[in-house]
Each structure stands twice: as C-alpha cells, then as structure tokens.
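Run log // design_07
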C-alpha cells in the first residue's frame, strides 16, 4: 500500500555526494529523505577510493621490504598472503562504514529509504512503495564501470572495480585493459603483491596528464616488471583453456596475450537508467545528466551532483558540489561549479597530482607568454633522506607570474599539490608561494624552491648585480 511523504529535500543516492548533502541539509533543520537501493557509502567506500588505497598500502609495505637495503636494512622478498591483504581491505571498509551508515544518518534526522527510486512527474518520486513530494530533489546516483565494445569480451569472465576486491586468490597473470588511474593503481598494487601484470592502453597512459610527469610513472612501472602496451588496439577477447586471451594490434602485426585474470578499467557511465528522467523533464546525455553552472537540471526543482552529471568524477568534487547546492538551494547564494580549480591525483608510486592547466593547455590558451618552472625531488633534502628522489614539481604561470597550473610527480604528490590548489583558487601569483616560510626538512619545501626558481634568472641578472653594488657603495 502506497504511503506519502512531504519533504523539503529528497536526495537520491547515498554515495559521497548524496551523503554530504543530506547531512548538511538535515543539520540545518530541513526535512530530508535519502533514498538508496544498494550500499550506503556508494562506490567510494565499497568499490573505489577506500578499498583501492587500502590495497595500495598493503602493496607498499611489500615493496618497502624488497628495497630495505637502501637504508642498510636486510632486504627480503616478502611472503604475501593475498587473502589476508584482502581481509585488510575489508577491515578498512568496515572501520569507515559506520560514518556512512543508516543508523548515523537517521540519528542526524534523515529519513533513509532503502529502495530504488524513479520519477513519476516533475515533482514526485516513487521510492519502493513510498510516494515522495519535495520542494527540491537532488540526484546523486553516481556512476558504474562499463566495458568497451570488444568482440568476445561479454563471453569471458572479467573483473571491474566492483568485483576486484572480492577476489581472494592472487592472479598468476593479471591483464589490465585501461591505462588510466584505476588501471595503473591496481596494476602496480597487484604486481607488488606478487602477480605478473600486463597493461593494455588504446592511447597513451594517463592521457589527460602532463606527458613529462607521466613519463616518470611509466619508467617506474616498467622497472617493477609491469608489461606496458600503449597504442594497443584490442581486436578480440577469447577463452584459452582456463585462461583469458586478448589479441591486440601492435601496429606491426597481431599479438596474443594470455592471463589468468582480466581487469577492465576503461571507462564509466552515469547511473540513470532506473530513474525515468523523462517523466520529470530532465535532460541527459551518455556522459551524464545535463546541469547548468548552479548544478540545476532542466527541471528547476532538481539538481544533479557527483559522477552522475559527468563534470568531475572525483570524490572530493562530489563533496564540493554538495556544498554548492546547499549554498544555492538553501541560502539562495550565487554559485558557479566551473569557477574553482579541479585537482586530481593518481595514487601510483610515485603519485602524480595535477591542478589547473598542463603546460600544453596553457600554451594553447596563452601562447609563448607562458613560463614554466621545474624543481626536481633530487634537490629536496627530505626526499634525499628518505630515498624518494624520483620526480619533480612543474608550475605553469602567465607572463605576470599568476599561477595557471601545477603538476607534481613524486612521493606524496597528493599532499604537496594542495598549496597550488590554494594558489589557483585565490588567483595568487607565484611569488606568494616563494615568500612562504616552511619547516625544514620537509617535502613541502620543494614547492617554495620551485616558486623561487621563477625569480632566479631576474634576481641574479647583471642588472640586479649592478643595482646591489651601487646600493652597497652608498654605505
């Protein structure tokens, strides 16, 4: 029997975006319902950021043992219990899960409805047997992995990020389709945990990142024994006894690769099929729900945030978009989802973090007026002490020194890039970073050194030397 709810806000989807918005709205005193038909916490907690970084951490420990002799400590090939490593992954998920649980959100005053949702009109949603009318709806249903249209792929078993962390048997040979963040992070983690790994990428590895920085990651992956195939067009996939075989066009002929397991990490699609968006007058494309700069859809009652709108598929941006909707829908303040910088980080070892424009993007927009400064990790004393000297900071500015973008490849790049996120968000010039006083010895000092390099040529020029000499003679 159908029951009815009258609400201020109905949030559809309990991933990072939906949880952030539901919590904020409820704590501001609104009547809020959160509809989720699958797992609380969404992709990030259950299949994405949390399990992948947990597995990477286990793999890092194994690699540290292999390389311990750099510090005068006996190195050894680690004994890896792959099932126990996966138990570690599940334990981390379990430790975080209460923060995203039904019980916590009900404690905040949110009505949690565990059922599929679909629009039945512009201002009404059915969630199971409950009809919901609300002043505002927020769609936050996220995305899912999709498989490329490769002949034979549907006829063989393969893993995605949604099934990978349920696999408790270490692959003998993992074939990875996709050389983006997910594919490369999991390729390196599995290699370090003892699997043979081959990566197949149709274009180039990490294609949206600065090629100079990507090359550092590429060299490390190859040095650890990961077989990399770029510009590799997959012709077909087929069974080979108990294994899976992939045939690729290498440009000089066909090559066949066989492995025990196949991981497909080659794209995602928005979760919109069950929503019946047309009933609510909500436009969408294959990339996601169409939104304006305020994250409002073509139905002014409805917002779409997180992966489902296809703008910036990162957990941190899901939370940021939730905050924008709270500002716009609750406080009636102007917002622009395109106004701020969108940082990203790939958690390989070394990490690669990027914010703002790459060098190529900056030159396309500003021509020859662009200035580029670099500083290698070899020039950082803390990196030397920790034997983590592979990588560099690369900063791009306009002719007046305003920061246009920054990329870092190296240890803890995801942390190091944050000062450049602030510089871009506040439209700072590079001199603001150069003038910071930072603790010594820290990896963060490398940002100050890179910024200082911008001024080196001018500071120590013959003209400056003449001025200093003249001032000194004045007494």
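design_07 sequence
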């Amino acid at each position: 029997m159908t029951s009815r709810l009258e609400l201020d806000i109905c949030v559809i989807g309990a991933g990072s975006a939906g949880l952030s918005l539901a919590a904020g709205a409820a704590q501001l005193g609104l009547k809020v319902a959160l509809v989720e038909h699958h797992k609380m916490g969404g992709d990030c907690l259950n299949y994405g950021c949390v399990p992948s970084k947990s597995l990477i951490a286990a793999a890092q420990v194994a690699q540290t043992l292999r390389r311990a002799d750099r510090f005068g400590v006996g190195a050894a090939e680690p004994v890896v219990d792959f099932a126990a490593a996966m138990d570690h992954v599940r334990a981390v998920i379990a430790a975080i899960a209460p923060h995203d649980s039904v019980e916590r959100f009900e404690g905040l005053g949110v009505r949690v409805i565990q059922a599929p949702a679909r629009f039945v009109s512009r201002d009404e949603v059915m969630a199971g047997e409950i009809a919901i009318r609300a002043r505002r709806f927020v769609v936050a249903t996220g995305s899912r992995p999709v498989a490329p249209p490769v002949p034979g792929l549907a006829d063989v078993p393969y893993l995605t990020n949604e099934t990978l962390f349920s696999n408790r048997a270490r692959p003998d040979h993992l074939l990875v389709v996709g050389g983006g963040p997910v594919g490369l992070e999991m390729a390196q983690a599995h290699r370090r945990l003892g699997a043979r790994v081959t990566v197949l990428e149709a274009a180039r590895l990490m294609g949206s990142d600065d090629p100079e920085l990507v090359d550092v990651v590429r060299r490390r992956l190859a040095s650890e024994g990961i077989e990399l195939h770029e510009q590799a067009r997959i012709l077909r996939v087929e069974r080979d006894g108990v294994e899976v075989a992939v045939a690729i066009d290498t440009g000089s002929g066909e090559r066949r690769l066989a492995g025990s397991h196949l991981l497909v990490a080659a794209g995602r699609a928005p979760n919109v099929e069950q929503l019946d968006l047309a009933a609510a007058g909500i436009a969408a494309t294959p990339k996601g729900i169409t939104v304006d700069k305020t994250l409002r859809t073509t139905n002014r009652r409805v917002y779409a945030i997180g992966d489902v709108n296809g703008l910036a598929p990162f957990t941190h941006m899901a939370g940021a978009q939730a905050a924008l909707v709270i500002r716009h829908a609750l406080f009636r303040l102007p917002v622009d989802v395109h106004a701020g910088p969108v940082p990203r980080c790939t958690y390989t070892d070394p990490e690669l973090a990027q914010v703002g424009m790459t060098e190529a993007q900056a030159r396309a927009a500003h021509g020859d007026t662009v200035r580029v400064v670099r500083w290698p990790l070899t020039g950082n004393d803390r990196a030397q002490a920790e034997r983590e000297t592979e990588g560099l900071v690369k900063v791009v500015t306009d002719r007046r020194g305003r920061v246009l973008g920054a990329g870092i490849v190296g240890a803890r790049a995801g942390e190091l890039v944050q000062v450049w996120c602030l510089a871009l968000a506040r439209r700072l010039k590079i001199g603001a970073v150069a003038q910071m006083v930072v603790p010594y010895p820290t990896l963060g000092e490398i940002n100050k050194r890179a910024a200082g390099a911008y001024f080196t040529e001018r500071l120590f020029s013959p003209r400056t030397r003449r001025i200093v000499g003249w001032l000194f003679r004045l007494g």
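Residues 3-40+101-145+269-331 form a domain with the FAD/NAD(P)-binding domain fold (CATH 3.50.50.60).
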